[in-house]
Amino acid sequence: MAVVLITGANRGIGLALVKAYANRRDKVLATVRASSDRAELDAFVATHPKWVEVLEMDVADPAEIGRVRRKLEAEPIDVLINNAGISGPDRQSATDMDFEGLTETFNVNAIAPLRVANAFLANVKAAKGKIITLSSQMGANGASSDSLAYRASKQAANRMMRALATELKPQGVPVLIVHPGWVKTDMGGEGAQLTPEESAAQLLKLIDKLDLASTGRFLAWNGKELAW
After folding, report:
1. How far apart are CA 28 and CA 16, in angstroms?
2. Domains in the chain, start-ordered, CATH in brackets?
3. Residue 179, H or E segment
4. Among 224, 89, 221, which Cα is nearest to 153's?
5. Which of 80, 12, 17, 74 has its CA nearest to residue 51?
6. How many angstroms separate the CA atoms of 135 and 65, rounded?
7. Alpha helices in the chain, H assignment, sequence order
């Protein structure tokens, strides 16, 4: 049985990952913001109480991360999944930017994954575990200017995770950056190609295979190598 910590676990891909891991009898530490709609998560936990523990943690709040870190101080974590993310403000073009929204998007999408990884690094090391961050192919280099806050935040997250992979490889901790695909979530919309369950199933396969030889890679849900 593995212990898996998943941020943003109340809906979409995060919730699908919770279900996928719990259904194969791994212990899931599911983190959610206190203000999140967690009805579907709570309903699943009610039928799987042995396999899922819900923890309130806003990844944008260092104090909340610290509180959960202290609570889990003695808990080895085999897989840490940075899933929590936001799409950014309504106005996010280079000439019409909501700068407060831009700051929030960077805080949640780029800074928080590194903060969470550092906060629980001792737990991951104790289990000889691995760190995964869900990113997006929209974070690859390119000239497109739509969804600029989201694109730039994901590119920054990619860069930080590559640096983390480099620093942690000598310490035996593999790091993977994953594009989960175009998924039918609040962010992806109903016209997307994959259901959250389909994406989660493929992500589990990638995560299971992750080792130091593949650390620092940027992969799609189907295993395809993506350009930076």
Report:
1. 12
2. 3-220 (3.40.50.720)
3. strand 175-179
4. 89
5. 17
6. 20
7. 12-23, 39-47, 62-71, 99-106, 112-119, 121-126, 148-168, 196-209
pLDDT at 185: 75
CB 211 within 8 A of CB 169: no
Eight-class DSSP state of 59:
T
Residues 6+ apart with CB under 8 A from 169: 212, 215, 216
- The three-class DSSP label of residue 146 is coil
Find the helix or strand (DSSP H, E) in which 134 lies: strand 130-134
113, 133 in Cβ contact below 8 A?
A: yes
The pLDDT tens digits along the chain (228 residues) read 999 999 999 999 999 999 999 999 999 999 999 999 999 999 999 999 999 999 999 999 999 999 999 999 999 999 999 999 999 999 999 999 999 999 999 999 999 999 999 999 999 999 999 999 999 988 776 656 789 999 999 999 999 999 999 999 999 999 999 999 988 776 666 776 789 999 999 999 999 999 999 999 999 999 999 988
Pairing relation of β-strands 27-32 and 52-56? parallel
What the block records as the tokens of 25 is 């009898």
C-beta separation of 121 from 114 below 8 A:
no
Q: What are phi and psi of 83, to 5 degrees?
A: -110, -30
Q: What are phi and psi of 168, to 5 degrees?
A: -90, -15
Q: Which phi-psi region, left, alpha or beta, contains residue 216 (left: φ > 0; alpha: ψ -120 to 50)? A: left
